[in-house]
Design brief:
two-stranded parallel ribbon, alpha+beta, 14% strand
Length: 73
């Protein structure tokens, strides 16, 4: 089975007070996946702030459930 991870962290919200630490949390998780669980960079997708749109999240969720690695860059 393919190993994949999707990490989404949003600090900068429109119309509400910004959060702190969400992006740092997923960067820490990215590091943990790589160093502790031997994930390769190509197995992890990261969306932060303005890139974490509904369309991008749905696109990456489709990548996540697709069993063929490399189908969606």
């Amino acid at each position: 089975m393919a190993r994949k991870a999707l990490l989404v962290g949003i600090n900068d919200y429109k119309g509400v007070s910004d959060l702190r630490g969400c992006v740092n949390d997923i960067l820490d998780m990215h590091f943990s996946l790589r160093s502790l669980f031997n994930f390769q960079t190509r197995e992890i997708r990261v969306l932060t702030d303005s890139r974490a749109t509904k369309a991008n999240i749905i696109h990456r969720l489709k990548w996540l459930v697709d069993l063929k690695i490399g189908t969606h860059p």
